[in-house]
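ENTRY TYPE: protein
WANTED: fold as C-alpha cells:
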Amino acid sequence: MQNLLRILRLVARLLLGLTFTFSGFVKVVDPYGFAYKLQDYFTAFGMDGLHSFALVFSILLSGAELLLGMLMLLDELRPLATWGIFLFMAFFTPLTLYLAIANPVTDCGCFGDAIKITNWQTFYKNLLFLSAAVLLIVGPWKNQLYISRRYRYAQFALWGLLALASIAPGIYAVRHLPMLDFRAYHIGASIPDGMTTPPGAPADEYATTFIYEKDGKQQEFTEDNYPWEDSTWTYVSSETVMVKQGYQPPIKEFYLNDPAGQDVALEILRKPGDLLMVVSPFIERISSDDVDRLNRLYDSVTDYGMRMILATASPQEVRAQFATKGLHVPIYVGDERVLKTVIRAHPGVVLMRQGTVLAKWTMRNLPEDSFFLRNPMAAAVSALHAHTERLPLYMLLASLLLFWGLQATMRAHERRGA
C-alpha cells in the first residue's frame, strides 16, 4: 500500500509540476496576451477598474504558476509548492465551473495562445489536477523540507534566482517582444494565406430537422425522410444546426480600411515588394519622439522603394487630433483586438514581403534607417531576428539546468559528508 501511495504521489507531482511549468511559461513569455485575457475577465465580472493593473497581474500570476511548477518538478520548497498549487486549484476549479455554465469568456486562456481549450474541457482538467493536489496535501509528505546544512545560503540564493527566472521572460517581453510567438502572425506566417480557406478543406456540416403535422399530431423528420411529397402532412417549421465544424482560417477579422472605408488589406499585403507596417492600436499613444523617428524612417525607405503604412484602431476624432503631430505615414484602420495580436508592442513595426511576416520590432529595438537600405533582401532580416529572439530562451533553459546541477551537487556533498 505504501509503495502504491509513493507511486501515486510521484505521478501527481510530475503531472502538476509539468502542467504548471508549461502553463506558466507559455503565459509569462506573452504577458500582454495574458493581460488582455485578464481584462476580459475583469469586464465580465464588472471590475473594469482593474484594467490598468492587468499587465502587472499577468506577470506576477503567470510567474508564480511557473515558479510553483518548477519547484514541484525539482522537489524544492515542498510545503510552498504543494500548498501553492493546491490553493491555485481550489480557487480556479469552481471558477472554471462557473465559466463553463455561464460562458462569460469563451476561452479561459489557461495555456495562453499555445493551446486553446473550451471552458468545459478546462473544468474537467482542473478536476483532475485538484484531485492530484489533494493527494499531495493529505499526510505528512508535504511538510518535508530539505535545507542544506553546509550550503544553505547558496541554496537560498538559488531559490531567489529561480524566482527571478520565473518573471524574467515577462519583463523581457514587455521591454522587447515575446521569446516565443504562438499566434497566427508569427515570423514566417503568411497573413493572406491565413485569411483564406485552402481548396478541398472540410466545410461546415449542417443537419436540418423538419416539423410536420398530420391529424393534429406533430412529428419530427430529417432531410432523408421528411414527407415533402405527401400532401396529407402540413409543414410547421424547421431548424438547422451545425453538427460538425469545418476548417477555420487561423486569421479572422484582419482588415485595413482606407480613408474611404474600403478594406484594402489583401491588396496591400499581396503587392510585390517589402512592406513596413507600424501597428499602434491606440494611435494617441505614439509619442512625439516616435513620430519624428517614424517620419525619418518613412522618408528613407520610401525613397529606396519600400512601402510603409500605419495600422490603428483609434476612431476618426482621435486620428484627427493626432494629425497635428505631423506624421507622414499613411494611416489605415483595423480591428483593435487583431492589431494587439499582430505584435505585442505599442507601437510596433512589422516587416513583410507579400504578406509573409519576416521580422518584428518594438520602437525600442527598431534598427537604424540604414539597416533597411543595406539589406534589400528582407529574408536576411528574418534569419537574424529569429536567432536573437531565441537567445533569451536558451539562457533561461541553461539557468534551470544549472540550478538542478548545483542542487544535486550540494546534496551529494552532504551525503558524503554525513
